[in-house]
C-alpha cells in the first residue's frame, strides 16, 4: 500500500508508463495569484525587452558580450580585468539564491524565471487563445488532420516562430550590443549573413524550447530545480497541500451536498482533481513537495475557487512549510538562515567597497620578457617595458602621458609622448625608463609610475627596475 502511494516518485510528471512523453494540457489558470503573476510578468517582460536598449552615461544598461569579453551591468562597464568583481557577484548570486530558496523554496521559478514567464504568460496564453482550454486542446490533439486542426496548428507555428525570432533579436542585443544589432538591421541581413545564421539558430532553439520541450526545462534541464532536494527543509515555505486538513482521519472524498464530512472523518479535499488539471508540470501536489513543482501557484488559485464553491475555508493548498502544516508553527529565522545572511551581508559589503575603489582606467606596465637592462652613458641605466591602458569609460581620454613618481628619471615612449586612449578601448605600446644609477638602491628597484591625462593623475602603476649588481 505504502509502495502504491509512493509510485508517483518512480517517474517524472511528463513521462508516461511506457516511458514516452506525456503531453501536458493544463487547464487555463485563474484567480488572485494568477492576476498578480500577470502584473509581475508584464513588468519583467518590459524590463527584459528594454534593458539592452536603455543607456546610462552612454553605456548599455545590460550587456553580456562574451565574444569580446565586455560586460555592462546596470550601466557600469566591466572588462576582463574586473573578473574578480564578476566572481564575487556570482558568489553573492549563488548565496542569495540559496538563502532565498531555503526560506521560500522555488518562489523565483514561479514568479520571476524567464522560462516560466515566457512559457506560462506568453506562449501558453497564445495557445489558450488559439486552441481553447484544456478540454478543447485534448480534443484537438486527438482529432484527425482536418481544416480546423491545420489552421490552428499553422497559426500557432507562425505566431510562436515570430515571438521566438523577437526573443532571439533581444538575446542578440544583450550579446553583441543593441547599437550593433540596429546597425545590422539597417544595413540589411544579407550584409551580415553569419549573424543572420546565429539569429536563426537562436530562434530555432527558443521555438524548440517553448513549442515542444516546455516544462521539461524546469524538470530535467534546470540545475536550480535539481538543487531543491538539498536546499529545502521542513521550515521552507513552498506551495503545499495541507494534508492534515485535506485528508483528516478517513482521507479525501468526493463532495456530496448536505453531507457532514467532518462527522464522517473526511478531510476538506473533495478529490475534484482540479489542482492536478491546472498544473503545468502535470503533478498532483497532494503527493507532497516534488521536484517538478515550479511553485507557479495555479493549484492554489484553483483549489481556492473549489473551496469557495463548496463553502469550505480557502487555503487548503497555500504557501506553507511542512512544520506549519504539521505543527502550526510560524516562520522562524533559523540559524541556517542567519549564517547565510551574515555571509551575504559581508560579501555584498566587499563588493560595494570594490566597486567604489574600482578605477575607470586600468594600467599595466610590465618589463619586456627576456630583457635585462642597458647601461648607457653618464651612468644611466635603462629598462624597457610594455604598457597597456584600458579605458572603461565611454569618453576618450586625451593627452595621456607617464611620469616617474618614485625616482628621479625619464620615461621615453617609442612613439608619441602624448597619446589618446579611446573610449571603451585600449592603448598599448613600449616605453623606456632611464634612471641615473646613483639614484638606485640595488639591483632590483620598485618603480611607481603615474598615468596622467593632461595634468590630472588618473592611475598609478608599479613595475620592477633592474640595475647591475656591481653598480650598487
Ligand atoms: S483542488 Fe483542492 S479539493 Fe480539489 S483535489 Fe485539489 S486539493 Fe482537493
Ligand atoms: S503543483 Fe501547483 S504550484 Fe506546483 S507546478 Fe503544479 S500547479 Fe504550479
Q: Tally of extended strands?
A: 16
Task: Compute the average pLDDT.
Answer: 90
Contiguous low-pLDDT stretches (5 residues minimum) are none
Question: How helix-rich are the residues, as a percent range?
Answer: 40-55%
Query: In terms of structural class, how would the helical and strand content be classed?
Result: alpha+beta
What is the number of domains? 2
Measured on Cα atoms, how large is the radius of gyration? Answer: 32 Å
Globally, the shape reads elongated
Q: How far is the N terminus from the C terminus? A: 90 Å
- How many DSSP helices? 18
Could you give a short account of the major beta sheet? 5 strands, antiparallel
Beta-strand content bin:
15-25%
The small-molecule ligands in this entry are: iron/sulfur cluster
Oligomer: single chain
List the helices and strands and how they pair.
Layout lengths: L1 H4 L26 H19 L4 E2 L2 E2 L1 E4 L4 E4 L2 E3 L4 H22 L2 H5 L2 H18 L2 H9 L4 H30 L1 H10 L5 H21 L2 H6 L1 H4 L1 H4 L6 E4 L1 H5 L13 H4 L9 H4 L20 H12 L7 E4 L1 H6 L7 H23 L3 E7 L6 E3 L3 E12 L5 E8 L4 E5 L5 E3 L4 E11 L7 E10 L2 E11 L6
Antiparallel strand pairs: 1-2, 3-4, 4-5, 6-7, 8-10, 9-10, 10-14, 11-13, 11-15, 12-14, 15-16
This protein binds iron/sulfur cluster (2 copies).
GO molecular function: 4 iron, 4 sulfur cluster binding; metal ion binding
Pfam families: Fer4_18, Fer4_5, FixG_C
GO cellular component, one term: plasma membrane
What would the keywords be for this entry?
binds iron/sulfur cluster, transport, 4Fe4S_Fe-S-bd, electron transport, metal-binding, 472 residues, alpha+beta, single chain, 44% helix, 2 domains, Immunoglobulin-like, 4Fe-4S, five-stranded antiparallel sheet
Amino acid at each position: 500500500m505504502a509502495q502504491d502511494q509512493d509510485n508517483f516518485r518512480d517517474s517524472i510528471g511528463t513521462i508516461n508508463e511506457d516511458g514516452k512523453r506525456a503531453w501536458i494540457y493544463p487547464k487555463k489558470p485563474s484567480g488572485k495569484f494568477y492576476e498578480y503573476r500577470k502584473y509581475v510578468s508584464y513588468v519583467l517582460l518590459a524590463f527584459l525587452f528594454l534593458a539592452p536598449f536603455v543607456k546610462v552615461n552612454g553605456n548599455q544598461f545590460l550587456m553580456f558580450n562574451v565574444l569580446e569579453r565586455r560586460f555592462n551591468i546596470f550601466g557600469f562597464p566591466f572588462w576582463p580585468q574586473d573578473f574578480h568583481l564578476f566572481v564575487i557577484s556570482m558568489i553573492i548570486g549563488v548565496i542569495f539564491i540559496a538563502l532565498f530558496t531555503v526560506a521560500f523554496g522555488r518562489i523565483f521559478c514561479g514568479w520571476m524565471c524567464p522560462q516560466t514567464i515566457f512559457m506560462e504568460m506568453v506562449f501558453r496564453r497564445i495557445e489558450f487563445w488559439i486552441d481553447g482550454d484544456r478540454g478543447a486542446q485534448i480534443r484537438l490533439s486527438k482529432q484527425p488532420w482536418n481544416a480546423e486542426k491545420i489552421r490552428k496548428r499553422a497559426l500557432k507555428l507562425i505566431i510562436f516562430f515570430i515571438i521566438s525570432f523577437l526573443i532571439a533579436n533581444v538575446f542578440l542585443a544583450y550579446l553583441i550590443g543593441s547599437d550593433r544589432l540596429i546597425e545590422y538591421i539597417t544595413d540589411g541581413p544579407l550584409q551580415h549573413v553569419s549573424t543572420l545564421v546565429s539569429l536563426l539558430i537562436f530562434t530555432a532553439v527558443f521555438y524548440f524550447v517553448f513549442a515542444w520541450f516546455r516544462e521539461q526545462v524546469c524538470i530535467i534541464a534546470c540545475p536550480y530545480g535539481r538543487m531543491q532536494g538539498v536546499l529545502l527543509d521542513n521550515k521552507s515555505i513552498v506551495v503545499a497541500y495541507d494534508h492534515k486538513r485535506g485528508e483528516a482521519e478517513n482521507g479525501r472524498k468526493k463532495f456530496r451536498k448536505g453531507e457532514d464530512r467532518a462527522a464522517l472523518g473526511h478531510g476538506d479535499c473533495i478529490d475534484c482533481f482540479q489542482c492536478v488539471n491546472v498544473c503545468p508540470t502535470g503533478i498532483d501536489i497532494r503527493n507532497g513537495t516534488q521536484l517538478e513543482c515550479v511553485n507557479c501557484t495555479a493549484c492554489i488559485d484553483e483549489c481556492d475557487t473549489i473551496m469557495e464553491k463548496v463553502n469550505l475555508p480557502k487555503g487548503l493548498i497555500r504557501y506553507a512549510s511542512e512544520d506549519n502544516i504539521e505543527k502550526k508553527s510560524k516562520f522562524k529565522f533559523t540559524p541556517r538562515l542567519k549564517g547565510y545572511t551574515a555571509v551575504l551581508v559581508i560579501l555584498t559589503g566587499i563588493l560595494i567597497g570594490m566597486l567604489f575603489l574600482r578605477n575607470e582606467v586600468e594600467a599595466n606596465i610590465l618589463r619586456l620578457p627576456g630583457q635585462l637592462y642597458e647601461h648607457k652613458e653618464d651612468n644611466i641605466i635603462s629598462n624597457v617595458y610594455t604598457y597597456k591602458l584600458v579605458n572603461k569609460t565611454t569618453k576618450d581620454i586625451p593627452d595621456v602621458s607617464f611620469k616617474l613618481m618614485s625616482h628621479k628619471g625619464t620615461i621615453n615612449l617609442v612613439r608619441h609622448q602624448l597619446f589618446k586612449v579611446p573610449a571603451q578601448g585600449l592603448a598599448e605600446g613600449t616605453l623606456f625608463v632611464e634612471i641615473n644609477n646613483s639614484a638606485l638602491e640595488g639591483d632590483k628597484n620598485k618603480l611607481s609610475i603615474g598615468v596622467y591625462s593632461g595634468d590630472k593623475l588618473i592611475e598609478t602603476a608599479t613595475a620592477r627596475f633592474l640595475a647591475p649588481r656591481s653598480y650598487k
